Amino acid sequence: MATGEDTELGSIAELIRTEAVGELPLQARMARFARVIGIAVLAASVIAFMSGLALGESAGHVFRVAVAMGPRTG
After folding, report:
1. What is the rounded average pLDDT of the residues 5-29?
2. Higher pLDDT, 10 or 73
3. Range 56-69 burial, b when 16+ CB lie within 10 A, else e
4. Closest CA to 71 of 31, 32, 33, 44
5. Mind listing the pLDDT tens digit for each residue in 25-55?
6. Contact between residue 72 and residue 47 where contact means Cβ atoms under 8 Å apart
7. Measuring CA to CA, how many Å separate 25 from each of 21, 31, 34, 37?
8. With contact defined as beta carbons under 8 Å apart, do 37 and 66 qualify?
9. Which band of pLDDT confidence, cut at 50, 70 and 90, is reported for residue 9?
10. Which residues cross the membrane (predicted)?
Protein backbone atom coordinates (compact mmCIF):
# COMPACT_ATOMS: atom_id res chain seq x y z
CA MET A 1 0.00 0.00 0.00
CA ALA A 2 1.42 3.38 -1.04
CA THR A 3 1.59 6.40 1.24
CA GLY A 4 2.45 10.09 0.95
CA GLU A 5 3.84 11.17 -2.41
CA ASP A 6 3.52 7.64 -3.79
CA THR A 7 -0.29 7.91 -3.92
CA GLU A 8 -2.29 9.57 -6.68
CA LEU A 9 -3.35 12.33 -4.29
CA GLY A 10 0.28 12.81 -3.23
CA SER A 11 1.32 13.14 -6.88
CA ILE A 12 -1.34 15.78 -7.48
CA ALA A 13 -0.30 17.67 -4.34
CA GLU A 14 3.34 17.64 -5.50
CA LEU A 15 2.33 18.98 -8.93
CA ILE A 16 0.33 21.79 -7.33
CA ARG A 17 3.15 22.63 -4.91
CA THR A 18 5.79 22.87 -7.63
CA GLU A 19 3.63 24.74 -10.15
CA ALA A 20 5.14 28.18 -10.80
CA VAL A 21 2.44 30.81 -10.54
CA GLY A 22 3.20 34.21 -12.03
CA GLU A 23 1.85 37.48 -10.78
CA LEU A 24 -1.90 37.72 -11.19
CA PRO A 25 -3.33 40.69 -13.14
CA LEU A 26 -4.91 42.16 -10.00
CA GLN A 27 -1.58 41.91 -8.15
CA ALA A 28 0.17 43.73 -10.99
CA ARG A 29 -2.47 46.49 -11.00
CA MET A 30 -2.25 46.86 -7.21
CA ALA A 31 1.55 47.10 -7.38
CA ARG A 32 1.33 49.86 -10.02
CA PHE A 33 -1.32 51.69 -7.97
CA ALA A 34 0.82 51.48 -4.82
CA ARG A 35 3.81 52.84 -6.75
CA VAL A 36 1.75 55.80 -8.04
CA ILE A 37 0.42 56.55 -4.55
CA GLY A 38 3.93 56.32 -3.10
CA ILE A 39 5.27 58.77 -5.68
CA ALA A 40 2.37 61.17 -5.01
CA VAL A 41 3.00 61.08 -1.25
CA LEU A 42 6.72 61.60 -1.78
CA ALA A 43 6.00 64.59 -4.03
CA ALA A 44 3.65 66.05 -1.42
CA SER A 45 6.37 65.66 1.23
CA VAL A 46 8.89 67.48 -0.95
CA ILE A 47 6.39 70.27 -1.67
CA ALA A 48 5.60 70.60 2.05
CA PHE A 49 9.32 70.77 2.86
CA MET A 50 10.01 73.43 0.27
CA SER A 51 6.91 75.43 1.26
CA GLY A 52 7.87 75.33 4.92
CA LEU A 53 11.34 76.63 4.16
CA ALA A 54 9.90 79.35 1.90
CA LEU A 55 7.58 80.46 4.71
CA GLY A 56 10.51 80.80 7.09
CA GLU A 57 10.04 77.75 9.31
CA SER A 58 13.12 76.13 10.78
CA ALA A 59 14.71 73.44 8.62
CA GLY A 60 14.59 70.89 11.46
CA HIS A 61 10.89 71.35 12.07
CA VAL A 62 10.01 71.28 8.38
CA PHE A 63 12.15 68.18 7.90
CA ARG A 64 10.33 66.32 10.70
CA VAL A 65 6.97 67.26 9.17
CA ALA A 66 8.08 66.11 5.71
CA VAL A 67 9.37 62.79 7.09
CA ALA A 68 6.12 62.25 9.00
CA MET A 69 4.21 62.79 5.76
CA GLY A 70 6.51 60.50 3.76
CA PRO A 71 5.60 57.08 2.42
CA ARG A 72 5.92 54.08 4.72
CA THR A 73 7.65 50.93 3.52
CA GLY A 74 7.11 47.40 4.58
Report:
1. 82
2. 10
3. eeeeeebeeebeee
4. 44
5. 999 999 999 999 989 988 999 999 999 999 9
6. no
7. 12, 10, 14, 18
8. no
9. confident
10. 33-55
